[in-house]
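New to this. Please check both lines:
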Amino acid sequence: MASISKVSILDYFNIVFEGENGKIESNCKACGTRIQAKRSVTSNFVTHLKRKHQAMYDEFVKKKDMKREAYSSSSSSLHPYSSSSLHSLANGGGHRCNHSITAGGVGVGGGGGREGAGEGVTKFHRHDPRQVLISEAIAKMLVQDLQPASLVDLRGFRELLQLLEPRYTPEPPRYLHTQLLPAYAYQAQLATRQALASALSLSLSVSLWRGFLGTAAGVNTGYLGVTCHFLSSDWQMRSALLACLPLVGGLSANRVLAEFEEVCVAHGVSGRAFRVVADPFPAETHPSCRLPGFCIHGNPGDDADEEEEESGDEGGEREGAVEQEDWWEGGLGSGRIDCFCCSLGQCVRDGLLSSSPLLSSTLAKASSFYNYVTSAVPHDKLVGLLGGGLGGAGSSRDGERDWAVQLKVLRGLLDSAEFLEDVSDRADLVLSGQEVALLRELTDTLEPFTEAWDMVHTHRQGDRHVSISLALPCVLGLRKHLSECVSPQLPCLLLGLSQAVERRLAPILEDPLYVTATTLDPQFKLTWSSDPDWHRQVLLDEVTKHTQTQGPSMELTPQAQSPDAALSPASSPLPSSTSLSRPCKLFSFIKQRPTAQAKSVEQELAGYLREEPTEEEPLHYWRRKTIDFPQLSQVAKRAFTVPAGTSTVETIFTSARHWLQPGRGRALPKNLETLIYLKTNYRLLWT
């Protein structure tokens, strides 16, 4: 038999470094891109070829197929048990074979799959590109859905894989959660550190959750998430989760600060953050705010149970809160600010709590009517009335527990009340005129809060970065709305909202950071100000302070701006003969260009404010205006890194906490922090 040469994906790469535990660094032979991975996990190399060099990938797949066919044919001809002899033996040999045998002579157990599913099928080699890509797709599924790796051992899942691709061999769960997923996390860490090394400016978000895994056996648990929002060298806003760390045994300010500093040092951002967005310590659990009594497609008892879980240990945690808060404030310094989105949600929660006795019974009746209608009436008839995705089948449990989504459902219900009454046969659930008027008053009062929530909430914006320049105009709009609003049936709601806004959000109006960010937003400038002269002076003071403390210019060279610049031929310097940096007799007839005189901060601000407001995206505007307003631009690229909304990892925790709790019928992934880390950084790896 002719020898069959081995086909390896590494044939298309030059290995430049090989470290411990099989870690290697290789350069692509075609483009020179450096890729880090483990020798046992080659999916990164296969993915690079498939995305960047399709012809080379097709050649690799063809070689693998040729090798497989050659191996299969040669093995079949030489193996003493050919398919025909096996068939004869099974029928007349006196005993029955319980295992299917592939054409290559490899036995495949038939206990967990379909009978005879593996007959005549040669399984993929461990490093076959199709085997690797399917394993990567399974890993993506585990990450996106936060599923335990043990899912691949379920009989139904294996039968599905056998039906879709009989040649695929499922990877063991231990390999997935001890090698494959950590390898992806390692790749994400490398990519994040490279991007942060050339970042122009950055801010951080600190997220804390208490009791996330329950309080079984009296052990308090929690998680710490650190997210970096940074401006890349090409003036694009990026966000990356730096770490998701489990905190078992309770939270203390000292411990959280130590973990936070360690994460910052490891990623090279210690001392570089412009602002740190973190709520006061001890962190509030921020229970999901929802309309009291309005339960869509659920059991009202679940809400009561979660309220107990969220507030059960409140008395004990208040002990020593003042001391912990002092440590927290001292550790993060004056750069700490509250999350605007969380503060906005707390305002709504405070207002709803103040009017809960008046609203609960009516909202409970409205939700019963909604649940009955959406279960009895065909979904296609409700889409145009209740909005897309709100007709029952399309709504998710996360959305149903969000006060803003609930309010939109309620508004659609009220707008279509007459039609829904006609198609339903439950007169006891129909809302009376007084009840409709009460709910109308509720929706009208909270409508501007819903608009502000949708505007700054990260999940509503498709994970797009929303800067704090929107916070100040939102607060002004809410104050104006509450001052003009008339609520004869819900005076407690109006009073509670007004007091909450003044307590939690009004300080923003005098905060120099928010004044600066809003004024440097080209769509606002000073059009919002009732005292332009004072706010102009606040901005001047802020710009002067930051330009003085900045010192030498932080602008990076083109080589430093891009990690791959050294590999690009376009980045090589021009020949010295083309440079006019020194006097040249040959070009003495050319008039010298006049040097631009530096403008003062006052002159830059005056020129900026003379321009008409524009809808141009702020960072695009300031990148274009860097030469015209260099000092303002330096402050703008810092201020716009501060987020107004919650980080993506908080959205993941909010959506996952109700079904990852022990006792809710779900197996808890052992490497939950790795799954959350990869899910948050999903776009960094797989887009």
